[in-house]
Design goal:
- The chain is an alpha+beta fold.
- The protein is 29% helix and 20% strand.
- It is built from 13 helices and 18 strands.
- The radius of gyration is 24 Å and the shape is globular.
- ATP binds at residue 169.
- It is a single-pass type I membrane protein.
């Protein structure tokens, strides 16, 4: 799915969209587009709502006849490889009116017998020139020495594109679960192209290729929260002030996803491995492959936003304890634990100016772990400083620190 709505796009829709064979649905509403729709299923089957509020779109879908135009003859030995450049809607590029448009800027010859040489790249780069070959060259064809992380969904590489460092996730392809891999790939693209938040990782682009697919993100030098907590030196540098700020950043990201998006989003896989830190210890939630929209979940009711709330409670305790709290919360008496038992012993006890915030976070974490999903707070409440009375009876006193 590709959602380009509400982006002030102008001009015609590039016919090169027809080469994006994995594109199944599209939304270009509320722009200033004109001209014929590409002859492909995604546009032909698009609803009127996905095409509305444009200038003069025409084609089979709209029922409007397009004016006859001269067609250019292309050399059969040439192919156009398309980069669709997407600029974040931050307002910093007013003259470009938040351009998200297809532009042709990279062409080369290929063997006419080779039918697997087409790559589609959708990029969100500052200079708009993050081409497929640059990434392959930077990674020396995915040399293992560039690997910075491995997960069930993909392998993450660090790539130096001369102008900036990026993180590139090469998607795992499993023969026994190819459809699930494709769904996760599309979910992450759909989610990260629709949301913008300082505590959510930025997607620069993606490439879909018969051999492999990958996603390109901003590079975050701090690495994963899990690795920081597991490293003694980094964990000690990760003091209480930083930990409180990271937890609040994660809460803000989840609150935004649940309550501020046009279609609320559930992450479904929040963990310390999926939270990345930049060089200033700012948290960025990542890995949206399993993410789901509330509207989709309404039919199954298998999960809801309270699952994210529970995961946030677990993650909050992990940040404060310095380790996964699995054994701790599996005990029926964990609610009776003292503050000293909860906090990471590698750090000195928090000072008075921060201890109340730490105590509050422990109480909030416990409330998020309530066995009854309906009794858990919303992330909107958590992000805005949930009063302790709504969580549990306050058990910790500042003198305990």
């Amino acid at each position: 799915m590709l959602n380009l709505s509400h982006n002030n796009l102008t001009g015609s829709i590039p016919s090169s969209f027809t080469e994006m064979v994995s594109l199944t649905s599209v939304d270009v509403s509320y722009n200033h587009l004109e001209g014929p729709l590409p002859k492909m299923r995604a546009f032909e089957e698009a609803s009127m709502a996905a095409l509305t509020k444009n200038k003069r779109l025409c084609g089979n879908n709209t029922g409007l006849d397009c004016p006859i135009q001269g067609r250019r003859k292309a050399n059969e030995h040439e192919v156009q490889k398309v980069i669709v450049t997407i600029f974040p809607t931050f307002g910093c590029m007013l003259l470009l009116s938040f351009v998200i448009a297809g532009i042709f800027f990279y062409m080369w010859k290929r063997n006419p017998n080779d039918t697997n040489m087409t790559q589609e790249m959708e990029a969100n780069c500052y200079d708009g020139k993050m081409v497929y070959e640059s990434i392959i060259e930077a990674l020396e064809n995915f040399d293992p020495k560039y690997i910075i992380g491995v997960g069930g969904y993909g392998t993450v590489y660090k790539a130096d594109l001369s102008t900036e460092l990026v993180a590139m996730k090469k998607i795992h392809t499993r023969e026994d679960d190819e459809m699930q891999d494709l769904k996760s790939f599309e979910n992450e693209i759909r989610t990260l192209t629709e949301i913008r938040h300082q505590s959510i990782v930025k997607l620069y682009g993606f490439c879909s290729h018969p051999r492999y697919s990958f996603l390109v993100y901003e590079f975050l030098a701090g690495g994963s929260l899990k690795n920081v907590l597991n490293d003694m030196e980094q964990a000690i540098a990760f003091d209480w002030n930083k930990r409180v700020r990271v937890i609040k950043g994660i809460a803000n990201a989840l609150s935004y996803m649940h309550h501020d998006c046009s279609q609320p989003i559930i992450h479904r896989d929040l963990s310390s491995n999926n939270v990345l830190l930049d060089s200033d210890w700012v948290a960025h939630v990542s890995d949206f492959g399993p993410a789901s929209y509330f509207a989709e979940l309404a039919y199954t009711m298998e999960v809801n936003e309270k699952c994210d709330v529970y995961s946030f409670g677990v993650l909050t305790l992990e940040v404060l304890m310095g380790k996964h709290p699995g054994d701790f919360i599996s005990s029926s008496s964990y609610m009776k634990a003292s503050l000293t038992e909860v906090l990471d012993q590698r750090l000195q006890s928090p000072m008075k100016r921060i201890v109340e915030q730490v105590e509050l976070l422990v109480e909030v974490a416990f409330s998020c772990l309530n066995e009854s999903p309906h009794s858990r707070p919303s992330m909107w409440d958590v992000a805005r400083g949930l009063p302790i009375e709504k969580c549990a009876t306050k058990r910790f006193r500042p003198t305990s620190a």
